[in-house]
Amino acid sequence: MNGRPRLFDRLVDAVRRARRQQPRPTDAGTRLINQHFPRQWGDTLTLAIRSAQPVTSPAVRERVTSALIPFGRAEHVTAVGSPYQAPGRTSAHRHIAFATVQFGVKASKIPAGEAKALMNDARAASGGGLSFYLGGDVVDMSETPEGGPSEGIGVIAATIVLLISDHTSQAMTGPARAHMRPGFIATA
Predict the structure, then answer these.
(1) What's the CATH architecture for 39-143?
(2) Is 100 strand, coil or helix?
């Protein structure tokens, strides 16, 4: 063997390690926030809310407020920001709003089961002219499976394509290079 399988294994290992690594705060502002507000260090989910009635109506407001309760009880959640707590969280026509779900850890540390439970809470609260949609890294990571055999096959296929294309380009330009001499300029 010419070492390619070992190189491939090292490449796959490096990709998997990179996925698991936590980003290190490098700027002073991030370090300051992490030091004094550790509950704000993790990732955030956005809960988009669409309503047939204005989200500011008492009936919708009550349903939205009730729907946020299960999110606050999740293990890694440190805070839930209601669309009614801060200005700018409700659209101009009052039928779309958003809430935030703050985690105390990065998305990579949140079990897929916890993320799926939050997605189920959003689905369960939807209905009767009110819909909840989750977005963010936590949801993306829970819906995207960790690498496995298919990832390995993809990396192998990409490697083969690169090797073939490299050899093809050398084969195509080889005859042209063989006829070129120093100081000689080829024209088409």
Answers:
(1) 2-Layer Sandwich (3.30)
(2) strand
